[in-house]
Amino acid sequence: MAESERTQNPWMNTEQTAAVEIDRQGSLPSELSVTDRDGTGKAGPQPQTSDGELGIAERAVSAAGAAFISAVIVNPLDVAKTRLQAQAAGVAYSHPLSNLTNRMAYSGPNSMFADLRCSPSCTRAGIQGTVSICPQDCFQYKGTLDVFYKIIRQEGFARLWRGTNAGLALAVPTVGIYLPCYDIFRNRLEDFTAKNAPITTPYVPLVAGSLARSLACATCYPIELARTRMQAFKVTQIGKKPPGVRQTLLGVISHVNSTNGVQGSLQSYRVLWTGMGAQLARDVPFSAICWSTLEPIRRKLLSVVGDEANAASVLGANFSAGFVAGSLAAGATCPLDVAKTRRQIETDPARALRMTTRQTLMEIWRDGGMKGLFTGVGPRVGRAGPSVGIVVSFYEVVKYVLQKHYPTS
């Protein structure tokens, strides 16, 4: 384990690893024996500063900081991806005039004579009676950049960060569970496989990533449900504040109660985990592909730096490896992401609880074919690559700094 740790983290004290001797069976000695700095040749056990000795608190702080930064930076791409997938699933992004009853109830009957263009600067509006109305394609998204343009023009620049509070509420605990658990599972499994089944060691990142992601997903799933619904549905009533995480989840529960006529039933709370199967079906292979790709890339990059590793090289190697691994994993799992989004925005509680991931994928294939399965792949890949790079590199740099300034014994 010492050699694999040093390959992954070459900033480890070289004097602590230079004299590690491995016996013919491949087992490691219980204590590290190193030559004393004064050159006397005296050897003795020395403390080892390694990735494996960081506590759970340090790992969680590192991961939470990384998640915070990533959630803020890449949120617009997440909004674009969700809008494109929701539109393909049948969510209508139309003008408030299509909901004229609600508009009149809010502003009074005179509101029907207002200027109902998609934005004050739109020159494509036609006159219907006394009302200026934009054509329908003003409200149809044609691609990632078109989503950005129309959200900024119709809803305001700040709407690109719709769901950021949910993203932060989700990312910090999720990643705070995910990355530390991945580290712990990987270290334990590498120790176990090195002693008992060395041939399976290359598969350790795949298994550790899958287990850690499953645990994190099951713990924080209702917030993920709220974020998807917040990003998918836009508020058309003028002057009304969009609902937050709590209001969104309460709205889901109240809709189930009103449909079933039963208050406080178990089913009304079960709906908060609607689509978790699709989420796991997406996240487990994503993590498996991501970590099994990321580990060899970053180890190779860090081995080039060797003993000269510093914070900048650790940042660069981990960001590059994370960017490549995240992009590949996001592209490969896009169909499962489309299924996850479709299940989370389902408005019929009975159908939401009845549908399975396989049925949803078949429905997507029937409606849109291969193009439907890869709806939103551009913003998904554009989001996942930088996101994984930011999270992993920030996490590893913070660990590096903690190891330098607060070595454990």
TrEMBL record:
Keyword Nucleotide-binding in record: no
GO cellular component: mitochondrial inner membrane
Keyword terms, alphabetized: Membrane, Mitochondrion, Mitochondrion inner membrane, Repeat, Transmembrane, Transmembrane helix, Transport
Localization per record: Mitochondrion inner membrane
Signal peptide interval: none
Region: Disordered, residue numbers: 21-52
GO biological process, one term: mitochondrial transmembrane transport
Coiled coil: none
Solcar repeat ranges, renumbered to this chain: 54-188, 200-300, 313-401
InterPro entries: MCP_dom_sf (IPR023395), MCP_transmembrane (IPR018108), Mtm1-like (IPR045315)
Topology class, membrane: Multi-pass membrane protein
Principal localisation: mitochondrion
UniProt-listed Pfam families: Mito_carr
Family membership noted in the UniProt record: Belongs to the mitochondrial carrier (TC 2.A.29) family.
Protein name per its UniProtKB record: Mitochondrial carrier protein
UniProt organism field: Quillaja saponaria
